[in-house]
């Protein structure tokens, strides 16, 4: 069972994703989380605090994902690309990321959201670099994964006849040419 704090963060993420920053009020978040406004304010004293809570949650989820990248038995690239593909991306990380993207588009919260998103990017890149030892190859893997992740967020399937396995195989071929 999730606690009130997590329900509030879940509700805020959902409202950001579905309605955008301008339509989200503390009253709307409290109602969506099924808590009183006082209950919301107990956990987050202001909308800025609520925003920081969502961005901190994104950072925590990103750190956990970077740990998973580093410890993946199949290797960092296979894990990163596979878990970025439509149908495989972490729902919780994807939701937090998408909510942060919405915040990044808003001028009052944009700078903090863009900084959090940059940390997420750096986490993934560092994890790939740690395993691959080649910054260019790590960036290529990250860009492929990020493109697949964008498809996940947009609900866009891979083109017919192209599979994640084919992408990974081609990446292995490129890496072996060095």
UniProtKB/TrEMBL annotation:
Pfam families per record: TetR_C_28, TetR_N
Database matches in PANTHER family: HTH-TYPE TRANSCRIPTIONAL REGULATOR BETI (PTHR30055:SF234), HTH-TYPE TRANSCRIPTIONAL REGULATOR RUTR (PTHR30055)
Protein name per the record: Transcriptional regulator, TetR family
GO molecular function: DNA-binding transcription factor activity; transcription cis-regulatory region binding
Phylogenetic placement of the source organism: Bacteria, Bacillati, Actinomycetota, Actinomycetes, Pseudonocardiales
Superkingdom per UniProt: Bacteria
SUPFAM superfamilies: Homeodomain-like (SSF46689)
DNA-binding segment(s): 25-44
